[in-house]
Amino acid sequence: MKLLLKLTLLTVWICLASTPLPAAAAEGAVANAFSPLKGKLLAGKDAVLFINGDSTSFSEYGPYYHFARALGEETGCTVVLHRWAEWVVSKPTGPKEYAPPVILYQGKAGPKLEVYLASLPGAVAGDMFAGSRRGKALGEIPRPDCALLHHGHNMANFPTAFQGDASSGRGLFLAAVALTSMQWPGVPQGIVTQNPWRDGDPYARIYEVLRGVARDEKQMTLIDSYQRFIAAGKRADLYRDNVHPSDRKDQDAGGRMVAEALLAAWHAAQPGAAFSTPGWQEHPGANLITNGEFAEWSAEQPVGWRVGGAATVVKAAEALLDGQASAVAVHPNGDKGAFLGKTLTEAECAAVRGRTITVAALVRAPAAQPRAYAALVCPVAGANKTFAFGDLNSGKDGWVWLVCSGIPVDAASKAGAVYLRFYPAFSLNPPVSNEPLLIQRVLVLEGTLEGKPAKD
Predict the structure, then answer these.
(1) Facing residues of 239 across strands?
(2) Is 67:255 a contact under the CB 8 Å cutoff?
(3) pLDDT tens-digit map of 13-51
(4) Distance in angstroms (rounded) separating the CA atoms of residues 259 and 242
(5) Domain layout of the chain by residue ranges
């Protein structure tokens, strides 16, 4: 009798594990980045999940293996995982492509969930958009029904113009959102916070940046695993080392805790509810500077812009994005201080005085040069401050956004006091190549995102 009871309970458990969740939304369910994907799976349709991550998302005992397997168990779908087969971002330690797929969960019938784990140890958010990876990492996979960003530990050392300034850090993540939306317009996007460090917490500043981004943009879902580690007292079993959550076969409590945060967001998602993340760069409102797309030229340079140092500029029309016809190519000519700059006119300065602004530029730096670099100088609280922002693509050789978001410009700023510069070869050493920095588009917008006024 006991054996029969056990077999009956086991049968019930197996049936429950393989039975699709009801299509009706749970009480309190909301539209979030998982809603379209969840709706497709529950309707018996195939779906695709994409993750752009670093080493904390990489392990086969880490959060996304646990999360993907759990989705198979809950919905009864077959889960196929493709993991990026490259082990160290700074070395040629693996093919730049997805490894052969593995089946994490075999459903008896029904839909298939394809999971593309574009995870790269030591990486930052833009590395999968580098020219050497972009095609296979992004261009050759099906359009995702949801895209998750799982980065931050390698992005915590962003520059600041004054104590408490997070404009460059905010820009790093907005740039990643923009690149993803350019690759797949409207794709639902979520950002997954990472764990705090076990001793100390340099990641805390990234966590606050992400909270700020989420407050400003409601059409992007923030999935909070950080607070779960805090609430658990940062127990030793949650960590593999001081930074990584435990994600090994013999100890995976940390990876499971991140997966629990993902599952909580999944369970909160209203199945099939409309949700998309628009490309904020496509609907910027009024651009507060003129000739930000370099359409007007006078003699040898774009109108309203000037070259500095040994720099020279020419029109370029190769390898452009966003449907634009041309860009400006800035050659350094052996000068590490060469730049293309714009000093805001009185009319342009009047448009930014007393406002919080975002500066964004779509650029491509060649692999032979240092990383792309730009700076905006403006008065803040009566003193000139330099807001420096580099790219989010440590691999270079690919189109990226340079973004600095949340710059407070003094109301008393005079014409000539606010200026912007782009450096094609900013470095301690003279450039070894004359390959140019391509700049396709420069936006100066009011607010912190989508041209909206800052909320904080």
Answers:
(1) 245
(2) no
(3) 333 333 333 333 466 799 999 999 999 999 999 999 999
(4) 19
(5) 21-280, 285-446
